[in-house]
Task: inverse folding
């Protein structure tokens, strides 16, 4: 079984400041790792994923996450946030044999202040 | 592409009644659909996995007689909350997936159920 912990339920930052959203996971088997974003009144959208290969993965809107196997972490970072990044962010894992079953963290609400 | 819709977006019902929530994949055929439940300020919890034409697989602790899932076609799955009670009030989210990798799951916008 897998579990995911997002340590911060809320993260307020000022516009153009850097941000890091933390995610740690626990699993006895190898996993795939995901970050999903949920904008207000919308469904979850895949932001980025780690399946294999390079441990640093990037999204099209400037976010990046690094898979750290020894620390069982997959923290999400952005060097300079924008008002439009205000959303709920969910970290998730699935077993590589898991038939697409996702296990989610509790979510982190990112609020960008002008 | 890959849009998933849910209907209704919000529903309020009286205790003891049943409520049906629809999940549709609008522009693709989904071999598998998933139903999640999200309590306020909590994570999404997988309730069940359904494959078209077969019985749903429920997660441990989810009452299959209370949460009826029907996946009648490759574009439609329904979740019926039977004899709803206030503790069933929650945000229900579905997702639909294509065969292949784990990153092919597309989520609906969710349905807010309030049971009075």
Result:
């Amino acid at each position: 079984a897998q579990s995911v912990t997002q340590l911060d339920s809320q993260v307020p930052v000022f516009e153009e400041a850097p941000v890091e959203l933390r995610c740690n996971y626990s699993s006895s088997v190898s996993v795939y790792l995901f970050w999903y974003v949920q904008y207000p009144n919308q469904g979850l959208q895949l932001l980025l994923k780690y399946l294999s290969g390079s441990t640093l993965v990037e999204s099209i809107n400037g976010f990046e996450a690094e898979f750290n196997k020894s620390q069982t972490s997959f923290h999400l970072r952005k060097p300079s946030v924008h008002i439009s990044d205000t959303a709920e962010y969910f970290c998730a894992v699935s077993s590589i044999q898991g038939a697409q079953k996702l296990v989610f963290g509790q979510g982190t609400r990112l609020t960008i202040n002008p | 592409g890959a849009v998933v819709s849910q209907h209704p977006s919000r529903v309020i019902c009286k205790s003891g009644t049943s409520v049906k929530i629809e999940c549709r994949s609008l522009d693709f055929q989904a071999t598998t659909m998933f139903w999640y439940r999200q309590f306020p300020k909590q994570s999404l919890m997988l309730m069940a996995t359904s494959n078209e034409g077969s019985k749903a697989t429920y997660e441990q602790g989810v009452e299959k007689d209370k949460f009826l899932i029907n996946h009648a076609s490759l574009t439609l799955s329904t979740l019926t909350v039977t004899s709803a009670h206030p503790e069933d009030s929650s945000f229900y989210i579905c997702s639909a997936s294509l065969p292949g990798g784990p990153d092919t799951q597309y989520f609906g916008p969710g349905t807010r159920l309030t049971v009075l």
Q: What stands out?
A: The first strand of chain B starts at residue 4 and ends at 7. Chain B touches chain A at residues 4, 32, 34, 41-46, 49, 93, 95, 97, 101-110 (CB under 8 Å). The radius of gyration of chain B is 13 Å.
